[in-house]
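Q: Structure tokens for this one, please.
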Amino acid sequence: MVYARRWRAGPLDAGFCAPPRGPREIADFVGWVGARPSSSRSCQDRRRRDTPLIGRRVRELRGRGVRSVHRIALSPACWGISEFHDWGHQIDPERVLSEAAAIGEGAITAGPPGFLPDRSDLARPLLRRHRLHVVSGQVHAILHHHETRGPELAHIDGHAHWLAAIGADTLVLSAIPERAPDAARPESLSNAEWAHLLHLIGSVEHVCARHKLKLAVQPRFGSTIEGPEEIERLLVGSEAGLCLDIAHLLIAGADPVEVIELAAGRIHHVHVNDIDLDLARHVRERTLNYKEAVARNLYRPIGEGGANVTRVTEALQTVQFRGWYTLEQETRLASHDDRPLGRISRSLEFLLPLLA
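A: Here is the predicted structure, written as tokens:
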């Protein structure tokens, strides 16, 4: 099994409305973030009752034909979805998929283990029902230990097989220090560990090629590849592509534009996000835990933080990036009453004209 736990997809009539199709249904639906309707109320009754309060500007932009020339996908992380049991309230996957279908452009990422069924023959019909396409999926692996080479490659191969089977085109790889949620990041790898890490990344490239996937290595805060020096060493020592995550680069002290210029045509995937730079500094200096910073709104709606997303996207367009822009705004929900769709909508309001 690729995933540790399995999620059961419910039937179409299990209390959830089918995702809306067309501008009018989307306009009626985008505001819905409520719980299951009673069996006596039809989906049309619910849409008439619930006044759409969020996503209005997104609908107006799309109504005027403002669509992204570039490709925008949505990450379940924007809805607070996480593999960590103590991350916060977890929204039902059906609701996430329905809202993503309503407000997005039909593309999502695979999410963490358990979000989609671990069997591709169950995941594919679920995605078809919501008219969604999975563009990428992330896998975390220990790459610098020789003794874990076999199990880690098997883990990556299983995930790559599943991603290819559900229609994804990119595997996003992050190098983790250990398989523990709060594992401390080593100060630096030895030359021998770096050599093994780079060699194993080459092996992962072959795995991805066998499954017809692109590989995008993500420099990520807290991973073994996070800052400018490590990114340069990765680029020099391997031919792997990169996943550019604006927030994680800034937290680690890297300038995303400098990374774009350094990597040029090797950027295969982009995580678009915006952050509070003051909170990011505290995380970088280890005076604030990353998880606590997320709870304090480390991630801001695009355009409302200090990341200067406009500058980054202009740099990406300069190097003729043609891959997916994934809205990847990690959030922690305190309860069922938290409604992340408003923040997602505000981010799309900023991104749609920017990438049009």
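A few notes: Confidence is low (pLDDT under 50) at residues 1-54. The longest helix spans residues 191-210.
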